[in-house]
Amino acid sequence: MSRSPVPSAGSPSRRLVLGSAAGATLVGIAGAGAATAASAPTAPAAAPVSSPHYDTGDRHISYREWSGRELHVGPYSGHRDYVDPFDATATSRSYDVATWVSPVVRPGFGLTELVASWNADTPGRSWVEVSVRGRSNGVATKEYVLGRWCRYDPDQGGGIHRTSVNKQGDTVATVYTDTLATRSGYVLDEWQLVVRLMRPAGTREAPRLRSVGAMASALPDAPRVPRSPDGRARGRVLDVPTFSQEKHIGHFPQWDNGGEAWCSPTSTSMVLAYWGAGPRRDETAWVTDALPDETDPQVDFAARNVYDYTYDGAGNWPFNPAYAATRPGMRGFVTRLRSLTEAEEFIAAGIPLVTSVSFEKGELEGAGYGTNGHLMVIVGFTREGDVVCNDPASHLIHDNSQVRVVYDREQFENVWVPHSGGIVYVIHPERHRLPRPPRNEPNW
Questions:
Q1: How far is Cα 262 from Cα 11, in angstroms, rounded to an integer?
Q2: Is the Cα torsion angle 399, 360, 357, 151 positive or negative in sign?
Q3: Which residues pair with 21 in a beta bridge?
Q4: Rounded Cα gap, residues 328 and 173, in angstroms
């Protein structure tokens, strides 16, 4: 979830505190951004030869994903009438429905939170709905909707206004925008995803799933973490372009109040630009037609295409990598990392990471602001092990040249891991290999 860098600026709080994030209130505001077709980085780095040995301790995180032949979908034998709550005409539309159900996953610990991810194509007016169900102490839960998604808004030719779903809570769990969270005293011992593919009745405009997964976690309620050991990326900095969200203040306020709230789409845009996968000039023409002097229209483009109409923000976690995965050859998912040592594995493999942080002014030296929730990109590490970031808040200065900053390793780790639970967006070309995950409780 993404937030405005200044609590008093941008849109109001829309997401509750997640219990496993050590009780840190994260107020959602930032969005995601598409990137220009910058030149691609150097050839993919080779994956490590062996799986690293991390001490996972009491930070239980696991990620499970299905793709390819594992995503065989049955026939369109179901039917649903759906009224888009953001359609001014309130017209009910009919859909043929096909369903994919994941195998049951038993993570080996009682999970308290789960965030799903999906990469899908939704041609025409088609769309997908992603849900989760599970068991708590042997008793089956209901099904919780984690998102209703399509690539484009209806005004762009898409099927629905993409949205999370509020007011799903019961005694066992609830959904905070994009995150399933169990109630106090409850855990889930197993989970199972359900994806419904919605095809306008009588047409062949059917969605296609490319990957579906979820990160499950059970994290300690610890206000601080110790400085992690330096990893394999010391002294390596990736050449990720710098975009400032501050340059977009006032742009298209119908999508989360404009640039002041667009840290998530701006961060997503920087990563897409690094991979040379941003939108083409003709795709962003609607931005430059309205704002002829705009030099980074990919950010505005992304904010529109990750916007969650119920959340009223551009910081829905899975919507950002799902948007990134609509770019040719790209893949994206959400997970949690346990430390910057794990983050260094990605930098060593040539993969920047979008991270979710929150902090009071002065708590992260060099930022120049405080935030109740914000996203930025880890692009590298100094030889001393400190974190090199592309921070789209850019010291609250409207200048792309202010975006690159170095943050103290221990300070950064403590505004990231205890507060968001170590959330990251992993966005990379499908052909670019990920580093090998930990052997014990792999979290990617």
A1: 10
A2: negative
A3: none
A4: 36
pLDDT digits (tens, 9 = 90+) for 296-355: 999 999 999 999 999 999 999 999 999 999 999 999 999 999 999 999 999 999 999 999
DSSP character for 400? G
pLDDT in tens, 134-162: 999 999 999 999 999 999 999 999 999 99
Instruction: For 227-245, give the DSSP string.
Output: PPPP-TTBT-B-------G
Domain spanning 19-56+223-429: CATH 3.90.70.10: yes
Alpha-carbon span 105 to 200, nearest angstrom: 31
**What would the two tokens of residue 201 be?**
């009745």
Residue 36 contacts residue 274 (beta carbons within 8 Å): no
Which residues have a Cβ under 8 Å from the Cβ of 369 and sit 6 or more positions away? 5, 6, 361, 393, 395, 396
Chain centroid, CA 130 distance in Å: 15
CB 438 within 8 A of CB 345: no
Token pair belonging to 83: 């009224």
CATH 3.30.70 given to domain 63-218: no
Angle among Cα 400, 406, 408 to the nearest 5 degrees reads 150
CA–CA separation, 440 and 426 (whole Å)? 20
Residue 162 phi, psi (nearest 5): -60, 140
The whole model's pTM is what? 0.90
Domain layout of the chain by residue ranges:
19-56+223-429, 63-218
Nearest to 64 by CA among 252, 241, 208, 190: 190
